[in-house]
Amino acid sequence: MIGNKIKEVREKKNMSITELARRAGIAKSYLSSIERGIQKNPSIQKLEKIAEVLDIDIHLLINKSDEQVPAEGLDPEWIDLAREAMESGISKEQFKEFLEFSKWQKQKNQEK
């Protein structure tokens, strides 16, 4: 998903993958792996560099919808926690597993 958005914006701006990689200061092979969906969890730092070169808000790359900014009323602490999790390298799958474990643990405690 992120890779598709990067490629779409890059192509709309008539920018080659080589040029974007060079201007963002990242390896062309790494950028290519993001665009092709091989690298599914790129670091927030790399995404910030890419977004800056493409002159777009990073939220356009991160959000599933075409929304460019977080929804109003979304707790900024949750945004910070999600960003921190991403920066630490936690995958979405690992985060989902943690949530499921927490739900299971809560349910077990309520049954006691």
Automatic annotation (TrEMBL):
Its Gene Ontology molecular function terms?
DNA binding; DNA-binding transcription factor activity; protein dimerization activity
Q: Does the keyword Transmembrane helix apply?
A: no
> Which superkingdom, per the lineage?
Bacteria
Query: What keywords appear on the UniProt entry?
Result: DNA-binding
Specify the species: Melghiribacillus thermohalophilus
InterPro entries tied to this protein: Cro/C1-type_HTH, Lambda_DNA-bd_dom_sf, SinR/SinI_dimer_dom, SinR/SinI_dimer_dom_sf, TransReg_Diox_bact_type
PANTHER family from the UniProt entry = HTH-TYPE TRANSCRIPTIONAL REGULATOR, HTH-TYPE TRANSCRIPTIONAL REGULATOR SINR
Q: What is this protein called?
A: Transcriptional regulator
| Gene3D superfamilies assigned to the protein according to its UniProt record, in alphabetical order | lambda repressor-like DNA-binding domains
Location of the Sin domain? 65-103
Where's the HTH cro/C1-type domain? 6-61
**Signal peptide positions on this chain:** none
What Pfam families does this protein map onto?
Answer: HTH_3 (PF01381), SinI (PF08671)
Q: Which GO terms describe its cellular component?
A: cytosol
Q: Which PROSITE patterns match?
A: HTH_CROC1, SIN
Is Cytoplasm there in the keyword field?
no
